[in-house]
Amino acid sequence: MTNSPTTPPGKVSMLSLLARDRVASTAAVVLVLIGACAVVGPMLLGDLAVEQNLRAVNLPPFSIGAGWEFVLGSDSLGRSVAARLVVAAGTTMSVAVPAVLLSLTVGSIWGMWAGFHRGRRESVSMRIADVILSFPSLLLAVVVLYVFTPSVANIIAVLAVARIPIYLRTARAESAELQSRLFVDAARTFGTGSWATIRRHVFPTVLPTLLTVAAVDFCFVMLTESSLSFLGIGIQPPDMSWGLMVAQGRQELQTAWWIAVFPGLAIIGTTVSAAMLAAWARMAGDPGQRWRLTLPRRGRGKITARKGVA
Amino acid sequence: MTATMEVDGLSVDIRTPGGTIRAVRGMSFAVHSGQTLALLGESGCGKSMTAHAVAGLLGPVADVAGGEVRLDGVDVLRLDPAARRRLAGPGLAIVFQDALTALNPVYPVGTQLAEPFRIHEKLSRRAARAKAVELMERVGIPEPRSRAGAYPHQFSGGMRQRLLIAMAVALRPAVLLADEPTTALDVTVQAQIMELLAELRAEQRMALVLITHDLAVVAEQADHVAVMYAGSVVETGPVAEVFRAPRHPYTRGLLDSVPSGAERGGRLRSIEGSPPELASLPAGCAFRERCPLARERCATERPPLVETGTGRASSCHYWKELADA
Amino acid sequence: MPDDETTLLEVGGLTKTFEVAAGASGRTALRALDGVDLTLGRGETLGLVGESGCGKSTLARVLLLLERPDGGHVRFSGVDPFTLRGKDLLAWRRRVQMVFQDPFASLNPRLNAAELIGEPWRTHRDLVPAGKRAARVRELLELVGLRAADAGRYPQEFSGGQRQRIGIARALALEPDVIVCDEPVSALDLSVQAQVLNLLGDLQAELGVSYLFISHDLTVVRHIADRVAVMYLGRVVESGPTEEVFGSPAHPYTAALLSAAPSLDAVREGGRERIVLTGEVPSPVDPPSGCRFRTRCWLAEDRCAQVAPVAEARPGEPAHHAACHLPLEPVVAGAPR
C-alpha cells in the first residue's frame, strides 16, 4: 500500500536527487549556462557583438579560418552571430524573466484567493481574466507601446498583464478543488485564517503546476517580444534580443539561414530546459512521488501502470 | 457431489517497478451449485485479485502465475480468449462493488441489459429488449417497462446494484462472483440486495462466491467461508462451525474484534499491528508477527492448509491448541 | 440525559438548507437539517446513527462552524459560538475538534507526521511554546500508539489505521473538550478498527473528553456510545440511553435499522425474523409530508401524512424519546426480539 520500497523520502538532498536524473541535470546545466551568458556576456563580448566587418558579410557557420568569433557565422553587416547570441541572452532574459515572474506572482496569488473563496470573488476575477484574454495581446501591446515609449519596463509590464489570466485560471481551478478537500476543512476547524491556509495547504500543492505553465509560457513571452521587435515597438536596435535576431534574420532566411536559426534554437533550448526542470521539480517537491526519482533508471517507464492494484 | 467451480493452487503476480509481487499465493477453494461461499478478508489480502483472476479480468500489470480454475471440469485459464468470452455470462458472471462506474452512463439501462441476449443468444433487438424488461422486473425494479429507457444516473444506488445483478444473472450463470456487492449501500438497502441474491441463487441453482470484509454478512449469507490473509486461505469450512470454533488465530482475532452488545464499553480484543506488505512478507507463516501463538517453528516453516475436521481446514501449526481450548 | 451542570453542548431546533442546482430551471432547496435537538454531557459519548443523506455529516460541520445554520441555536457551555469573533472565536475553536472519516484525504500528503500534528499550533501560537513543540509531538505520537521516531514520516508511509491515529493526535493537539468523530473507523479494516475504538476509549478515560460519534455501523455505536440519537432525513427520530434504544426501540425506523444490520448472532443463535424495509431513503430535496419515515413505514396511517410527530418520552423511560405517532411497545427484558 505504501509507496516507499527504497530509501525513505526526505532523507535525500535535492542536489543528489537532481544528479541522479540525467535529463533534469542536463536541463539545469543549460539554464545555468544561459544565465551565465546573460550576466557576464554583455561585459565580455559587448563590443564584438556590434563590431561590423564588411569583409566578412554573411559568412556561413563553421567557416574555418575566419576567426573563432565567426564559428556561428556572421550577419549582413558582418557581425559575429555567436557574440550577438551571447549578448542578446542578457536582454532577452531581462525582459522574459521579470515578465514571467510578475505575471506568475500576480496571477497565482489572485487565482488562489479567488478559488479559495469561491462565490462572487471568483466570478468577478474570472470575468476580468476573460476580458484580458479576449483582447489579442499583440494588439494591446501595440496600442500601449505606441502611446508610451517602448522601453524595457513598458514591454515587461504589457507582457506581464497579458499573461496574468493564464496563471489566474490555473491557480483558481486548483485552489477551488483544494479548498473542498478534507485537510483544508481540518485546517478550518483549527481556526486557521484563509491566507494562512492558502500559504500552508494550497500554495505548495499548486506551485508545481504553475511552474510548469510558467516554463512553457517563457517561450511565448520571448516570441511575443520578438513580434514586438519586428513591429519596431519592442527592443530597439542597437540593443539586441533573440526575438529581434529572429525577426531580422527572417528576411535573409533563404540566403543566410543561420542568422535566424541559431537564436531560434536558443529560445527553444531555453524553453525545453525550463519545462524539463519544472517537470522534475514537480516530482521532487512531492513527498509522495519523490521515491520514484530514487529508483534505478530502467524500471521507471512501468510505474504509471502500478495504480489499480486491489 | 462434484463442485461447480474448483480453484486449485491459483497464484497471481503483480509486476511493479520494485519487482514482482505475488498477490495471491496458492489459493484453493471449491463452490457447489445452490450454495454460497464467502471469501472473507481485509483490504489487500488478495480477495478481489482472486475474483478478477477467476473471471479473466486481470489488468495489464497482473498475471496468473499458476494453478487451475475448473468450471464443470474444464480449466478456464487454459482456454483461448474467444472460448473464454463465450463462457462469460452463461458460465461465470461477476457483480462489482461500484454500480455507478460499472454501467455505461450514455446508454439506457434497457439497452445495456439486452446486450448479453443479443451477443450470446443472438436474439433480435425487440426480443432482447423484452427479455431485459422481464429481468428488471425479476430483480425488483418498479415499472420496468417505462424505466428501461432511463439512464443509469436516474437510478438510486440500490437500484443500480439491482441492475448490475440483473445483467450478471441474465444468462443464468453457473457461478456468480459478487465482489463487495453491498459495501457502498445503506444498511436497509444492503438487506434488500442480500435477500435478492439469496433468492436468485436458490431459484437458478447458482453457485455464489461472495467476496466481503464483513463478518456479519458472511454469518448471515454464506454456507461456507474461506478466510484469506496475505494472499492465501488460512482457514476454511462451514460458516457456523468456523465462526463458533475458529481453528486459526487470525479468524479468532477477527471474531474477537467485532464489538458485541454484551461487553459494551469494554476493551475489544484486537489483533496487534496491521497486515503485512505483500512485497515484504515475513518468512514462514505470514501471520506470525501478529499472532499470539507464534513460536520459532512459525518463522521458518510455512504452515500448509491441513484438514482439521469434516470439510474444515486450517493453515496453522498449532490449530489443535485452539480446537482444544 | 445530562443535567444543566454537566451539559457541555446543546443544540436546539437546528435547521440548515442548501441550495442545489436543479437542471436549467434554476435552484431548489435541500433541507439537510430540519429541527435537530441534541445534548452532549461532559465526558460522555453520544452516538449519532443514520443512513446516507440523513444530515449527520451536516450536523458535524455545523458544530465545527464549517457551515452556518439557518435557524435554531448551538450552545457550548452556555455560549453561542456563532456570535463569537476574533480571539474568543479562536479560543472556542480550540475546544471542539474533529476526527475525519477518510484518513487519506484529511491529511495533507505534503506534510510529515510532526508537521501535521503540530499544524494547529501554528494558528494557536501561545498554546504550546515553540521550544516544547517537538517534545509535545512525541508525547502525542506515543499517546495514540505510534512511535516518536515516526515524526518525520509522511502520511503515505503509514497504513490506514496509523493515519487515523495521526488524525486523532492532531485533534488532541489543542486539548479539546469535545471531539466530533465523523465515521472514524468505517474506512478501516476490522482488526484495525478494534484498535482505534480501544484507543478512543482509553483517551476518554484518561483525558475526560466528550465524543460525538457519528457512524452508520450500529455494532460500533452500541459498543462505544453512552447515549444514542437516530436521524432520518434531517430529523432526530429517536434518542436515549444506548441500551434502552437498542434493546427496545420505540421508533419503527430504529427497529428496522437494527433488524437490517447484519449480525454475527445469526451463527450464534440461528435464524431470526427480520424487518426488510421497501424502497430507499427519499430525496431530502422533496421529503414526504408529516412524518418523514411514513413512506417506508409498515405502521403508517393517515395522520402520519398530515401531522409531523414530536419527540415524546416513553412511559417509564424519561430519557428515551421518540418522534412517532405509533411507537412500538417496549420489549420485555429477556424476551427475544
Order of helices and strands of chain A: HHHHHHHHHHH
* Helix residue percentage of chain C: 25-40%
What's the CATH superfamily of chain A, by name?
MetI-like
Mean pLDDT of chain A equals 79
Greatest interface by residues involved: B-C, 46 and 44 residues
CATH topology of chain A: MetI-like fold
Straight-line N-to-C gap of chain A: 10 Å
The main sheet of chain C comes to: 8 strands, mixed
Count of DSSP strands of chain A: 0
Coarse structural class of chain A? mainly alpha
**Radius of gyration of chain A, whole Å:** 23 Å
CATH architecture heading of chain A: Orthogonal Bundle
Q: Low-confidence parts of chain C lasting 5 or more residues at pLDDT below 50?
A: 333-337
Task: Indicate the proportion of strand residues of chain A.
Answer: under 5%
Net shape of chain A: flat
Described by strand count, sense and barrel closure, the largest sheet of chain A is: none
Number of helices of chain A: 11
Number of E-type strands of chain C = 11
- The value of Rg of chain C in angstroms is 21 Å
How does the SSE layout of this entry go?
The complex is a heterotrimer of chains A (310), B (325) and C (337).
Chain A: H1 14-20, H2 22-50, H3 81-117, H4 119-134, H5 137-147, H6 152-178, H7 182-189, H8 194-230, H9 242-250, H10 258-284, H11 290-293
Helix pairs in contact in A: 2-3, 2-10, 3-4, 3-6, 3-8, 4-6, 5-6, 6-8, 7-8, 8-9, 8-10, 9-10
Chain B: E1 5-16, E2 19-31, E3 36-40, H1 47-55, E4 62-71, E5 74-75, H2 81-87, E6 92-95, H3 99-102, H4 109-120, H5 125-138, H6 144-147, H7 157-169, E7 175-179, H8 187-204, E8 207-212, H9 215-221, E9 224-229, E10 232-238, H10 239-244, H11 249-257, H12 296-300, E11 306-309, E12 312-314, H13 319-324
Parallel strand pairs in B: 3-8, 3-9, 6-7, 7-8
Antiparallel strand pairs in B: 1-2, 1-4, 4-5, 9-10, 10-12, 11-12
Chain C: E1 7-21, E2 27-41, E3 45-49, H1 56-63, E4 71-76, H2 86-95, E5 96-99, H3 113-123, H4 133-143, H5 160-172, E6 178-182, H6 190-207, E7 210-215, H7 218-224, E8 227-232, E9 235-241, H8 242-247, H9 252-260, H10 265-269, H11 302-306, E10 312-314, E11 317-322
Parallel strand pairs in C: 3-7, 3-8, 5-6, 6-7
Antiparallel strand pairs in C: 1-2, 1-4, 8-9, 9-11, 10-11
